[in-house]
Amino acid sequence: MNKQKTYFNLPKKVLFCKKCVSSNQLPRSIPEFIHTKDRKGAKYLNFGKDGICDPCKVHAHRDKIDWKTRENELINLLDKYRSKTNQYDCLVPGSGGKDSAMQAHLLKYKYGMNPLCITWPPILYTDYGRQNIQNFINIGGFDNLTFSPNGRVMKELTKLSIKNLLHPFQTFILGQKNLAPKIASKFGIKLIFYGENNADHNESLAESHSSLTEKSMYTHKNINNLYLAGLKINDLVKRYGFKYNDLLTFLPSKTNEIPKNLKVYYLGYFIKWVPQEAYYYAVENTGFKARPFRTQGTYSKYNSIDDKIDDFHYYTTFIKFGIGRATYDASQEIRNHHIDREEAKALVKRFDGEFPDKYFSEIMDHLEINEKDFFKWCDKFRSPHLWIKKNGKWKLRHNVNKTGEND
Ligand SMILES: [Zn+2]
Q: Residue 352 C-alpha to ligand 1 middle, in angstroms?
């Protein structure tokens, strides 16, 4: 057992899954609006006594599912909601990436629904992201509503969420998750579809058996219990000069503002969701294009490429949890039988934690953060049980290749 201190309630002993390359330091999803500075109540990836993580078990279980029966369940569900008067009958949130492209396309062109697509735009669009959303609308053929949040507030909140939580993606996640139920309510749409269930990557086994998202993930009862950038809403207003109405854009609706019969489903519950296949599908049907170069921190070219902040986000997960983007990608590809564990370990060794310098200065300029300050903030988030500084350089104590400082 490690003697070093651990931050954020992280599991003291670092374990690696025997099937994939994820460690038990991976956080399970919580609604971002209850994310506090000390990650109070945070839960991490569950490992069985057999040393295998829950997402690997979820995937093994998926191989045994009768997908024809699941598709019939989907068709029955859609029949209940399909508009007979040519109104929008479902809503698909997305920013033009491969997954939302496939979701929307299947719903409209295979299952005959009339989806309204909505986009909460990335914090800093890449050229490829901008092109892909245009292709999605123009080649795929969809009605799409793009929401543009107050840029100044977005920037200030993103800066605070990096400083307080080392979480550059929080504003995007919040905005994107909470916008969908709000817009659906305005259009009288009762059905929202996301793609994959979170359980496929970081949730517990029990959560993967549901096709529905719980209401508590996108509604709230009392604004005094909510946090943004790790701060209470009241604090943001009183101490930082934000206006309530500017913050509401990022927050979930009050429970009574969302119709009781609105449902949020994962299409991945009904259809076997394989990211690589979603990529091929989007290339063929919505003009999706991969980035012509490898994403820094990993080896892939087509996963989450629309926001410049994305590469940066995975660098921060490497600091906080010792888990970089190559670990996420390689674990997913092992579970989908594209690569084996030895190949995955080699990819992690080569790319995990690579510093994403391509857009770094541009991001810092945009958010008005001093580069030196950013690195100082990073060091505050390195849990002593994960990191050690040797000869002026940070090293992981443990890694999947067993070459860490304390392995
Ligand atoms: Zn695993």
A: 17
How do beta strands 115-119 and 144-146 pair?
A: parallel
Q: Which DSSP symbol is given to 277?
A: H
| Residues pairing with 394 in the sheet | 389
Per-residue model confidence as pLDDT tens digits over 87-140: 999 999 998 899 999 999 999 999 999 999 999 999 999 999 999 999 999 999
- How far away, in angstroms, is 58 Cα from ligand 1 center? 10
Q: How far apart are CA 371 and CA 392, in angstroms?
A: 18
What is the CA(45)–ligand 1 centre distance, in A?
9
**The overall pTM is greater than 0.70:** yes
- 24 alpha carbon – ligand 1 mean position (Å): 9
**CA atoms lying within 13 Å on the CB side of residue 77:** 21
User: With contact defined as beta carbons under 8 Å apart, do 300 and 329 qualify?
Assistant: yes
pLDDT band at residue 26 under the 50/70/90 scheme = very high
Q: What gap in Å lies between CA 307 and CA 133, rounded to an integer?
A: 12
Whether the Cβ atoms of residue 306 and residue 126 lie closer than 8 Å to each other: yes
Structural contact between residues 117 and 187, judged by C-beta atoms closer than 8 angstroms: no
- Residue ranges in 63-165 assigned as alpha helix (H): 67-81, 98-105, 127-135, 151-165
Domain boundaries, the chain: 67-270
> 304 CA distance to ligand 1 centroid (A)?
21
Other beta carbons less than 10 A from residue 181's beta carbon: 25
- 135 alpha carbon – ligand 1 mean position (Å): 35
Distance 260 CA to ligand 1 centre (A): 37
Please tell me what DSSP assigns to residue 294. Answer: P
Task: Yes or no: say if 218 and 253 are a contact pair by the CB < 8 Å rule.
Answer: yes
According to CATH, the topology of domain 67-270 is: Rossmann fold (3.40.50)
CA 263 to chain centre: 20
State which residues have CB under 5 angstroms from ligand 1, the bound ion.
Answer: 17, 19-20, 53, 56
Beta strands in 316-392 (DSSP E): 387-390
Question: 201 CA distance to ligand 1 centroid (A)?
Answer: 9
In the DSSP assignment, the letter for residue 29 is: P
342 contacts: CB under 8 Å, gap ≥ 6: none
DSSP letters spanning 128-145? HHHHHHHHIIIIII--EE
Say which residues have a Cβ less than 8 Å from residue 78's Cβ, sequence separation at least 6: 90, 107, 111, 112, 113
